[in-house]
């Protein structure tokens, strides 16, 4: 598979989850595991351009795919507009949900560049945050939407 | 997860061959239910046959007056399909309410209907629309397909290849989401085929999706929200747990069905 | 006007995947642990057979309770510096790190497998066979008080491990006997899971030569972790607790869990680092839970609605074992603020701590304060309804006036400062309280029940320690490292503490780097990040350390500038000879003296003895209820908060937002439920209803600072006050919405099913069923 633009090739036990492969084999620990029932969204990455939960995919299913993780979002020193908006809107506190949240929001804005409040809430259904109460996350999605739309 | 072997099938026949070789083989479509089940060590298949990339299972098309959707089509593609939105907008809406965006990006209607989880959304659409469930060996009418909790008419090793939906004159789906899981506490799909009305209910009953015949009759006589007011939904057979009593779910069935009819009547 | 918020110092790494949480650390040669947990609430362990597990591929060791006892690990006692009623001490059942003799709750750690991979360890756990003999279990705390109830532990007859009271029982009784009006409520503050997004995990290595453990975990501070580990019998100086990023604390990560100690022992026994990453399912059942209190209260008033006395009774489920903070937070907190923001001349409270065969209870955001505020504000609300006095007017009539500070409660607790009536006035105006009835009518026309509720509340925050230290150390080019013993988990300490120091020293905050709870840093005294204390205690210490730098700098600069120290002034980062333009920048002074010895002459340590503060607030919520489904929607929420001087508005607001929504989670859905057989029914996010985006859509917050005299910054605690306020505010609003439909009482969580059932019961009571 290709991860953040780099071709990677490793042997893994068949029961290995994509998230385990990313974290344990590739050392990309920015993708987190927050639950075991596919609900928290902390492990969200993009596979072939779509936001998915990497805890709910076997690594074999991603064989040959294009995978993008939080580590691949910034271009050099320049943060992705969603990363920038999360920073400026104080949309993170402990930061554990943040990588998955950012990947989910990037996916949302890719599909729907100007989401309404309702679209944003609907689009965040697969991600949990315990610190922020989501208030500033919703704000950050709106700001990122403006940045991306205006760019 | 217990140790297992993963194999990716490229074609339907390859999937059939792999299934036939192993007693304990299971199909893996989107994996949105199966993988969490495996992680919880609640199932121990020896082989997983991944049909997620089998081309024959993909696609959405109009065939005559019917809408045909490949079993392996991802929810997200159904929800966004202009064809689905035009032919059966209620189906596009239902699919847009399945799980969450990440789940819709992976999950498939074929996987959901094969599993027949009593709280899943898709069975309500398949049953209310009177769809035909197509497998690699036959066609099964929706009314013959659903056999209760996680039970279906599928034979061991039989693979759903797609769904053929007749197009209703009008239809709507309304659901009350479970406060924790987001699955349906009760969901009602109401489809009006020009006088013949079908109503399917998911989420509420402890034996899975079912047709609410009394509502169909009442709406068949007069398609109006008030037609449902006189009906009593019995709590017998409804699920009961910490999230809601059988009485509560019986109430939700009525309210969701009525709201679906409201939505149709309002032209939403 | 503060500069626009550009992000925190922490954020760059956290938004880029560069954060390092516990599971992100790995050590060469590490082994992996997995736990076998009890699947029954109460049973005698007849036999454990680990042979098959030991023989499984990759398995290095299997540990059981006997192994931990052999290591000298003992029962960790709770923090409880006072006796209960009649001078009785707390009764502690035996507890070992891995169960010995019997198991006392579902999820209790029974055995641990250590293997070369995490999967191998998990596979082998299933090969351990345990023979149990079931014992009668007790799950509910009130049931546990009944005569003849099963005992959670034979060592604690009657299941009450601690019986505590405060106030003047006789006087309160006398006042109640003569009072014109008495209002009573009985409420449930249900059991909650803390659910930090980072599941529980740890990593330990053991240096056999030094006899020291390096230990990575999600911690709320180094001194707390060392103190907690010491409770188990491992000397504090033998542990170097480590953490970079902590994925949420909320009180439940304030101490060392049994798994931590077991992993440390395994590292010692195997001679290799051992890592354990818990699953969410394990975390749900084994992270200590919060709340679980039955609250009863009575309020006595005169004819005119003046409060005369209050009497409280709390029955606190402590689970199977008293946790470190559990007994403390369930007794001292209500005693510190028994009258809330009101003048209540006499109070009496009795709190019984009850053991049951359930997961232990610990501090969880608010830690007794939301419960106290909920009880009192529900009482006041009911008193208004019963007396016919307007609910705002009744509150206003009884508020402690702003000129009454420092105000001493009947329990001798001294409130620092506040202006409660101003908070109330402001929130009424900001929320358009007067215009509400029109909104209610508009909602009714749409078939919705709309309600409004308010609460005026305070809470004790901070204090909890004789002193906290901070140290500023200078580097080679004028940059500084600030050492403190805080244990941040998202509060933004790396950003705001350097801001405090930078402002005092007139230098950019980027020159200062915080090292929180660094085991390789200087040894510092203090207590961790609990009880909303960090800004007042550690931030205050940082400020004092900066002042000490200035004091030392004046001496040093005087020599450099060849004047007397008293001829110098310090401003804008420069030491200036008064009345001249001769000056020397602090940074330049620091540079000149760098590298001349082990200790930089400007290095400074300060002690801060911060006292308890009493942040307060007035909140208003409006909710809308769909009577057909029972679904509750928070239409808008307005808060006016006094958390003292605001150092960084954005971070303060973030704390209050998070706190309010966490409280809303308890009000609207979160509930940790054990069935009668002791099984956890809410063991995953499939059944435990977490707040999602949009739970509170419109949230408007306003600062109303009244400085606190109890710490050098004038701040008050802010981490928990949002939660304290939102429980009573939201429940008062929900009941206001339901009252016209005849509902008078409803317990949290106000789930759709419960609200619907309450409406149906009320309708049934008003009109007999058909037929």
Walk me through what this model shows.
The complex is a heterotrimer of chains A (151), B (268) and C (771). Chain A is α+β, with helices and mostly antiparallel strands. Helix content of chain A is 35%, strand content 10%. In chain A, helix 2 crosses helix 5. The longest helix of chain A is centred in the last third of the chain and has 16 residues. The model of chain A has no long low-confidence stretch (mean pLDDT 96). Chain B has three domains: 46 residues, Uridine Diphospho-n-acetylenolpyruvylglucosamine Reductase, domain 2 (2-Layer Sandwich), CATH 3.30.43; 112 residues, Uridine Diphospho-n-acetylenolpyruvylglucosamine Reductase, domain 3; 96 residues, 2-Layer Sandwich (Enolase-like, domain 1). Chain B contains eleven helices and twelve strands. In chain B, the strands form three sheets. A five-stranded antiparallel beta sheet of chain B has the order 4-5-8-6-7. A four-stranded antiparallel beta sheet of chain B has the order 9-10-11-12, sandwiched between helices. A three-stranded parallel beta sheet of chain B has the order 1-3-2, with helices on one face. The radius of gyration of chain B is 18 Å and the shape is globular. Chain C has 771 residues and is an alpha+beta fold. In chain C, the strands form eight sheets. Chain C has a seven-stranded mixed beta sheet with strand order 3-5-1-12-9-10-11, with helices on both faces. Chain C has a five-stranded mixed beta sheet with strand order 7-15-14-13-8. In chain C, strand 21, helix 16 and strand 22 form a beta-alpha-beta unit. The longest helix of chain C is centred in the last third of the chain and has 28 residues. The relative contact order of chain C is 0.12. The chains are: A alpha+beta (151), B alpha+beta (268), C alpha+beta (771). Chains B and C meet through helix 11 of B and helix 21 of C.
């Amino acid at each position: 598979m290709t991860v953040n633009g780099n071709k990677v090739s490793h042997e893994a036990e068949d029961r290995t989850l994509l998230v385990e492969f990313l974290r344990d084999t590739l050392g990309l620990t920015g993708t987190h595991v927050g639950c075991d029932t596919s609900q928290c969204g902390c492990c969200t990455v993009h596979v072939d351009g779509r936001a998915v939960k990497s805890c709910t995919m076997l690594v074999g299913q991603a064989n040959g795919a294009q995978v993008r993780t939080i580590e691949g979002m910034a271009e050099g020193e320049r943060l992705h507009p969603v990363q920038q908006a999360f920073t400026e809107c104080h949309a993170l506190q402990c930061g554990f949900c943040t990588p998955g949240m950012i990947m989910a929001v990037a996916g949302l804005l890719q599909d729907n560049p100007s989401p309404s409040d309702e679209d944003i809430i609907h689009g965040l259904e697969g991600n949990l945050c315990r610190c922020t109460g989501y208030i500033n996350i919703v704000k950050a999605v709106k700001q990122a939407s403006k940045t991306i739309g205006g760019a | 997860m217990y140790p297992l072997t993963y194999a990716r099938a490229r074609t339907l026949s390859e999937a059939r061959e792999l299934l036939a070789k192993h007693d304990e083989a299971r199909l893996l479509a989107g994996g949105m239910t199966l993988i969490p089940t495996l992680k919880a060590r609640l199932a121990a298949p020896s082989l997983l046959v991944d049909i997620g990339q089998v081309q024959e299972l993909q696609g959405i098309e109009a065939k005559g007056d019917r809408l045909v959707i490949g079993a392996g089509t991802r929810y997200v593609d159904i929800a966004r399909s202009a064809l689905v939105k035009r032919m059966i907008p209620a189906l596009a809406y239902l699919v847009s309410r399945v799980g969450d965006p990440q789940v819709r990006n992976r999950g498939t209607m074929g996987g959901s209907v094969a599993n027949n989880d009593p709280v899943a959304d898709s069975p309500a659409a398949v049953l209310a629309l009177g769809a035909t469930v197509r497998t690699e060996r036959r066609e099964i009418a929706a009314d013959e397909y659903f056999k209760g909790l996680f039970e279906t008419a599928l034979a061991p090793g039989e693979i759903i290849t797609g769904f053929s939906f007749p197009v209703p004159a009008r239809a709507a789906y309304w659901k009350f989401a479970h406060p924790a899981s987001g699955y349906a506490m009760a969901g009602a799909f109401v489809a009006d085929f020009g006088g013949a009305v079908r109503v399917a209910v998911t989420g509420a009953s402890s034996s899975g999706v079912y047709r609410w015949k009394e509502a169909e009759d009442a709406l068949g006589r007069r398609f109006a929200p008030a037609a449902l007011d006189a009906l009593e939904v019995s709590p017998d057979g409804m699920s009961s747990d910490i999230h809601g009593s059988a009485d509560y779910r019986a109430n939700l069935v009525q309210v969701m069905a009525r709201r679906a009819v409201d939505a149709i009547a309002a032209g939403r | 006007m503060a500069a626009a918020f550009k992000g925190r110092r922490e954020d760059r790494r956290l938004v880029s995947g560069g954060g390092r949480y516990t599971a992100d650390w790995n050590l060469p040669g590490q082994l992996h642990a997995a736990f076998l947990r009890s699947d029954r609430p109460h049973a005698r362990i007849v036999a454990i057979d680990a042979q098959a597990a030991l023989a499984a591929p990759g398995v290095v060791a299997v540990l059981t309770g006997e192994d931990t006892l052999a290591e000298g690990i003992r029962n960790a006692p709770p923090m409880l510096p006072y006796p209960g009623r009649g001078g009785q001490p707390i009764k502690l059942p035996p507890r070992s790190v891995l169960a010995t003799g019997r198991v006392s709750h579902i999820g209790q750690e029974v055995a641990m497998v250590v293997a070369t991979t995490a999967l191998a360890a998990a596979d082998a756990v299933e090969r351990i066979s345990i023979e149990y003999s079931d014992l009668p279990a007790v799950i509910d705390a009130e049931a546990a008080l009944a005569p003849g109830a099963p005992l959670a532990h034979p060592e604690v007859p009657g299941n009450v491990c601690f019986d505590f009271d405060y106030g003047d029982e006789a006087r309160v009784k006398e006042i109640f006997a003569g009072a014109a009006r008495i209002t009573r409520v009985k409420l449930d503050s249900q059991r909650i899971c803390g659910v930090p997004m980072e599941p529980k995990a740890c990593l330990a290595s053991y240096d056999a030569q030094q006899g020291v453990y390096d230990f990575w975990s999600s911690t709320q501070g180094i001194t707390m972790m060392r103190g907690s580990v010491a409770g188990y019998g491992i000397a504090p100086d033998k542990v170097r607790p480590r953490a970079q990023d902590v994925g949420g604390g909320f009180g439940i990560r304030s101490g060392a869990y049994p798994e931590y100690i077991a992993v440390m022992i395994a590292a010692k026994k195997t001679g290799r680092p051992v890592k354990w990453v818990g699953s969410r399912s394990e975390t749900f059942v084994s992270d200590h839970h919060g709340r679980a209190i039955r609250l009863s209260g009575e309020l006595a008033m005169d004819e005119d609605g003046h409060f005369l006395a209050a009497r409280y009774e709390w029955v606190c489920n402590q689970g199977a074992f008293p946790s470190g903070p559990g007994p403390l937070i369930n007794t001292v907190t209500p005693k510190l603020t028994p009258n809330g923001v009101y003048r209540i001349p006499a109070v009496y409270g009795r709190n019984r701590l009850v053991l049951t065969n359930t997961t232990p209870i610990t501090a969880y955001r608010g830690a007794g304060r939301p419960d106290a505020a909920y009880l009192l504000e529900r009482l006041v609300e009911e008193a208004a309804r019963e007396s016919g006095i307007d609910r705002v007017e009744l509150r206003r009539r009884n508020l402690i006036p702003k000129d009454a500070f420092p105000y001493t409660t009947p329990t001798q607790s001294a409130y620092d400062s506040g202006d409660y009536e101003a908070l109330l006035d402001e929130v009424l105006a900001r929320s358009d309280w007067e215009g509400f009835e029109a909104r209610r009518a508009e909602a009714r026309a749409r078939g919705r029940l709309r309600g409004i509720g308010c609460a005026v509340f305070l809470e004790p925050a901070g204090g909890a320690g004789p002193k906290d230290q901070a140290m500023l150390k200078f580097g080679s080019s004028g940059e500084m490292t600030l050492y403190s013993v805080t244990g941040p988990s998202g509060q933004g300490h790396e950003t705001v503490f350097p801001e405090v120091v930078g402002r005092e020293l007139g230098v950019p905050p980027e020159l200062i780097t915080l090292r929180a709870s660094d085991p390789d840093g200087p040894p510092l005294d203090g207590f961790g990040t609990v009880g909303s204390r960090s800004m007042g205690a550690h931030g205050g210490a940082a400020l004092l350390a900066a002042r000490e730098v200035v004091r030392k700098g004046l001496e040093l600069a005087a020599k450099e500038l060849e004047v007397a120290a008293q001829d110098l002034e310090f401003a804008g980062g420069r030491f200036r000879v008064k009345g001249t333009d001769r000056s020397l920048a602090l940074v330049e002074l620091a540079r000149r003296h760098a590298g001349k010895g082990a200790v930089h002459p400007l290095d400074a340590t300060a002690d801060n003895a911060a006292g308890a503060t009493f942040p307060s607030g007035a909140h208003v919520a409006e909710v809308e209820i769909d009577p057909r489904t029972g679904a509750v929607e928070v239409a808008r929420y307005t808060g006016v908060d006094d958390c003292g001087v605001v150092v960084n508005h954005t971070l303060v607001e973030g704390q209050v937002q998070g706190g309010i929504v966490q409280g809303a989670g308890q009000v609207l859905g979160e509930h940790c439920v054990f069935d009668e057989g002791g099984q956890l029914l809410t063991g995953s996010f499939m059944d435990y209803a977490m707040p999602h985006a949009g739970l509170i859509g419109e949230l408007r917050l306003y600062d109303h600072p009244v400085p606190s005299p109890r710490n050098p910054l004038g701040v008050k605690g802010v981490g928990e006050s949002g939660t304290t306020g939102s429980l009573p505010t939201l429940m008062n609003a929900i009941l206001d919405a339901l009252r016209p439909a005849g509902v008078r009482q409803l317990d949290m969580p106000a789930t759709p099913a419960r609200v619907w059932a309450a409406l149906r019961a009320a309708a049934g009571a008003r009109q007999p069923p058909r037929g």
